[in-house]
Structures are given as C-alpha cells and as structure tokens.
Amino acid sequence: MRQSKKRIRVGVVGVGRGRSFMRATSATGMELVAICDTWEERLISEGKSLGVETYTDYNRFLEHDMDAVVLANYFHEHAPFAIQALQADKHVMSETAACHTLGEGVALARAVEKSGKTYMFAENYPYMVFNQEMKRLYQKGLIGEFKYGEGEYVHPDPPEVKLGRSCGVDHWRNWIPATYYCTHSIAPVMYITDTRPVKVNGFAVPFDFDDPTMTQTVKRSDTCSVIICRMNNGAVMKSLHGSLRGHGNYVRIHGNQGLMENCRHGDKQRLRVWREPWEKRKGEPVETVYKPDFPLHHDRATRAGHGGGDFFTSYHFAQAVQTGEPPYLDVYRGIDMSIAGIQAWRSAVNDSAPMEVPDFRKESVRKKYAKDDWSPDPKRKKKGQPFSSILGELKPSREAKALAKKVWAERGYFGK
Question: Do residues 154 and 136 both lie within one domain?
C-alpha cells in the first residue's frame, strides 16, 4: 500500500457541474491547478475567479502538470474522457454515468486495470447522512438480511429551468431515455447493502402531452421510469426517477428483522428505524426517528452540495489516491449502476422483458459486450439504434423551440 500525503494536483473538466468539485479540492487534500471546458466565455471567467489555468482543448489540458482529473462533463461522454486520462497517467474521478454503452463499459474496465491508477465513480447520493447511517446500521446487523429496497429520485422543474440547464436541442438532458439517469436511486441501496443488480425490468411512463413542463421544452424522452432490479443476494429493489410531481429523494431498506428509511415528511434528513415488537430487545422502542450526524467531517459535509455528498466524493477520492486503496465506488460499481439504466431501456422497449446486467469484473463476460454500441445519442444514429421515448420519435413544437431560444440567449448560448 502506497502512502503519500502531498497535496494532489487536480484538474476539473466542466465549469458548470464542475464548480462544486473545484471548491471542494482544498478541503479534501487536493489543489486545483487547471480547468477545461468548450464554453470559452464561462471558462475564462471561472479561471480568473479561481486563479488557475484554463483549456478548451482536452488533449492540451491533459499535458498540464497534475496528478488527477475530475470529469464533470456531459453525462454520456465520461468513459472516453476517462480512458484518455488514464492513458495519460492520471487518476480519475468521473461523474455519472460511468459509461454510455456496454462497449464503453468494457473499454473503461480494461483501461482502469491496465493503468494501475485510481478510478472513482462520483455518485454522491450514497453519502447523504441518512444513507451513511443506514449503511452503518445494516453492517451491524440491525435489520437482518436485505430483502427489498426502494430508491427514489424525483425532480420536477418548470420549463424555463429545464431549458436553462440544457442549452442546445441535442444537449444530453433533452434526449437521454428515462431509465438512464438511475444512479441517484440505485446507488444508495447498493452502498447500504453491498449488493449489485444482476437483472432488470424497465418501465417508462410515456411523455405527457398534457404537461407543460414537458411540452414547453425540447425534451424528447419520457416522464419517468421505474426499474425493478434483482440483486445478487436474491433481494428485489425498485428504482424510481424522473419528472413526476413531488420533489424528493428517498431510500427504504427492508431486512428480515427490520426496516430503515429516511423520512418523507418534515425534515427528510431524519432516519426512521422499525423493529417488530416480538423481535426487538426488551426496553427498545419499536420505532425510532432521529437525525444522525455524519460519521466524519460533519461541519464540512453539512455545508457541501447534494446533502453532503459533494464533499464525500472528493474526500474519498483523495483518500484513495493517497493510500492506493481502491474507493468503495470503484470502476466496477460505477459500471454496474450505469449499465443497469442502459439494460433497463432495452427492457422497456421490449415490453419490459428481463435483461441481464453483466458483471464486467470478468474478462470472459466483457468479451461478449466489447462491441456493443447501442445508444439513442442523436450523433450516433444508425440502423438498430433506439429512440429516446417508448412512443418513438418525438419532435418539439415550434412554440417550445422559440421559448428554448429565448432562455438559451439569456444564458449566453446562441447555438441550435
């Protein structure tokens, strides 16, 4: 095990979502030295504010004297950027998703193994305070063996907000299928119970033509999705994510000796634990509701984004680089979570038939999927590629396009 306590020189790709990582570096043993983005105006402004080098060319960015790269670029572009960084001898922390196709997942797993560098999947929702507490309690055996779980990430927004964060008709948020954005709901359950999905059934709630938050945008994918996962210990979990009304994220874990979940009402950071009267110890309550503290760095975490998750992804990445020990959210778990969404879309467009979630820890399995480039990306269109909606090809209205142009212009974006 290598030990190194020198500050890790890091570069961040993406000046939108990447800003959270840029501001977390100094608190976690890292030093921000460079940033990269193709949106030059925002890049230069951010670079001046932070006093770091700026690059619009990723190849030149990788030549900068640094130890690690944080990828906060577009959702469907992470794997190729990660592979290139690993080949340039950089450690990598990658935002979600880890890969956009199964073939990319194979290439990514191979690249990490060949490089010998640290790769961490920057999925932040497992590190919310109630999820860390549930993991601790589960590992203690408080609720017995995991049997059923639920993860929910419900995120509705008005049209102007949706358009404001998805500039361009072919921005990934406007076409990514409903099942793909699943890691915020699947990851906490995997993290708490230390299980992985082995099969999925995907279901999509179709695009709602009576919902102005859908019709007044240029989005061509569906309202939301449900993924039913069979886990490797035989348990079942439900992942719900999308644009339903009722904003919130919830995690529920049923064991064969109890239940844990974060509260749906009031302070949602509180945890509820339930033990049946005949199974609890004498003097213990049947139901306990409390607000846990973070196990480490409580004050720093409470000030960070995504319920503390943005601090802990950077913290654990820095720890992994410094010690040489792989992070819990390693490349294999990142791929597991990401391809669950891809396979769930395969299921959804095939009448929700079950689909395998292949385990790319095994080279014998990887060989079968190495050339799998199935994708709804408009730039990868070819025969056999899927649409972004279970309804087929959707086209934004003239009114939606006009509103989009107005919102994008206000943000300084004048492309199509």
Answer: yes
b/e sequence 195-212, b meaning 16+ C-beta within 10 Å? bbbbbbbbbbbebeeeee
pLDDT reported for residue 3: 46
One domain, residues 149 and 79: no
Tokens of 128: 């919310």
Cα–Cα separations (whole angstroms), residue 416 to 45, 221, 401 = 23, 18, 9
Cβ-proximal residues to 123 (8 Å cutoff; 6+ apart), any chain: 96, 183, 184, 187, 313, 329, 334, 337
Residue that terminates a domain, selected from 121, 148, 179: 121
Residue with tokens 């921005």: 171
Q: Write the CB contacts of 161 (distance below 8 Å, at least 6 apart in sequence).
A: none
Residues 247 and 360 in one domain: yes
Whole-number Å distance between alpha carbons of 278 and 281: 8
What residue ranges in 232-368 does DSSP mark as E strands?
236-242, 248-255, 258-262, 271-274, 287-290, 355-356
In a domain, 280, yes or no: yes
Number of domains composing the chain:
2
Q: What is the CATH number of the domain that holds 221?
A: 3.30.360.10
Query: Residue 315: what pLDDT?
Result: 93
3-state SS assignment for residue 42: helix
Bond preceding residue 97 cis, omega within 30 of 0: yes
The answer on pLDDT for 413 being more than 90 is no
Note whether 87 and 23 are same-domain residues: yes
Angle at which helices 102-115 and 78-87 pack, to 10 degrees? 20
Tokens 């959707």 sit at which residue? 394
Q: Say which CATH number the domain at 85 has.
A: 3.40.50.720
Report the distance separating Cα 345 and Cα 179, nearest Å. 6
Report the distance separating Cα 401 and Cα 218, nearest Å. Answer: 6
Report pLDDT digits (tens) over 23-41: 778 788 899 999 999 989 8
Q: Which two tokens stand for residue 42?
A: 């925002």
320 occurs within a structural domain: no
What percent helix, strand, coil does the chain show, rounded to 5?
35, 20, 45
Quote the pTM value. 0.95
